[in-house]
Amino acid sequence: MRMDKGGFTVKSTLAVALTALVTVSGIAQAPVSDELRTLADAERAFAQAAREKGWRDAFLEFFSDDSVALTPKPAPAKDGIRKSPSQPFSVRELVWEPRTGDIAASGELGWLTGPSTSIDHSGDKKPRYGAYLSVWRREASGWRVLIDIGVDAPEPVTFASGFTRTTVSDRYAGKEDKAAATKALADADRRLNERLNSEGAAKVFPEVLAPAARLHRQGITPIVGREAVVTWLSSNWAGVSNTHGAAEAAASADFGYTYGVWERKADKPKSGPYLRLWNRDGQRRWLVIVDLAHPTR
Predict the structure, then answer these.
(1) What are the pLDDT digits (tens) for 211-246?
(2) Tell me: the pLDDT tens digits for 242-282?
(3) Which among 239, 254, 264, 283 could bridge 172 via Cys, Cβ 3.0 to 4.6 Å?
């Protein structure tokens, strides 16, 4: 298995209504609710635990028992983590912090991303930079990580100052139940994959990306904003096929995630998992707010 926290790779594995929007680097950001701040605080506590007890033991503490590793097919994350040796922070240094994210209106699902740096003090001691992406679920014991996967970047990844919320301005506020919303989200992901496979990213993604969408790909600095994301995909993501794996929507039917497997057979064959985070707007459209693809070969 493999487990990622931004650029670090271990081979063992709200209910607050939107009001006025502020603009950060040209991308609309919504006010941060107390619920979202609580989630960000849980991520900070997770990062502090990694400093105090090492990454492995911190991951075991903060990951859900149902957490999933995308390798690229889903597998129990904790099984892989337990196979890794416990290492102190002085040997395997891993630091990260939440800088943006979102939470469902129902308050039980959310996501966070931010910069990460890792240093192997037993090896070459060269810093590795990246951006992590985590999906969190609120459980009886508190917030726990459900999915965690990151990408390497060539330099430290910058974000807007402070902590911001990334979402769509016209957020869905209907009454669809979780099961129906999850089915609708899975159908949206399958339709997107079918169109990507037949029509290509340049034509399809402009219709399904949220204005503040983020693109995370291995080896590049994350790209922010629908137009910039489409430009990159048009030049770099041709000939890729996608297969849907699973989906889950929040109880409020306004946020959810999907994952699956992507593959490119031409040129230099590559494949790996994808993870998409979605917001639903007032027109009941599921829009991609984060699209991540990570190669495993």
Answers:
(1) 999 999 999 999 999 999 999 999 999 889 999 999
(2) 999 999 999 999 999 999 999 988 777 899 999 999 999 99
(3) 254
Place of tokens 């502020």: 22
In terms of Cα–Cα distance, which of 80, 204, 63 is closest to 147? Answer: 63
Measured distance CA(249)–CA(288) in Å, rounded: 13
User: pTM for the complete prediction?
Assistant: 0.91
How many CB atoms within 10 Å of residue 166?
A: 25
68: β partners: 76, 147
Helical axes 178-199 vs 201-208, angle rounded to 10°: 150
For residues 251 and 151, give the distance between their C-alpha atoms in angstroms, rounded to a whole number. Answer: 29
| pLDDT surpasses 90 at 3 | no
Q: Report which of 80, 72, 143 is spatially closest to residue 110, judged by C-alpha positions.
A: 143
Neighbours of 76 (CB within 10 A): 16
Nearest one of 167, 162, 136, 159 to 18, comparing CA atoms? 167
d(CA 290, CA 172): 17
61-117 pLDDT, tens digit per residue, is 999 999 999 998 899 999 999 999 999 999 999 999 999 999 999 999 999 999 999
* Spatial distance between the Cα atoms of 104 and 143, rounded to a whole number of angstroms: 13
Please list, in sequence order, all residues whose beta carbon lies within 8 angstroms of the beta carbon of residue 140, skipping any fewer than 6 positions away.
none
Please say whether the dihedral angle defined by the alpha carbons of residues 232, 235, 236 and 240, taken in this order, is positive or negative.
positive
Q: How far apart are CA 116 and CA 202, in angstroms?
A: 30
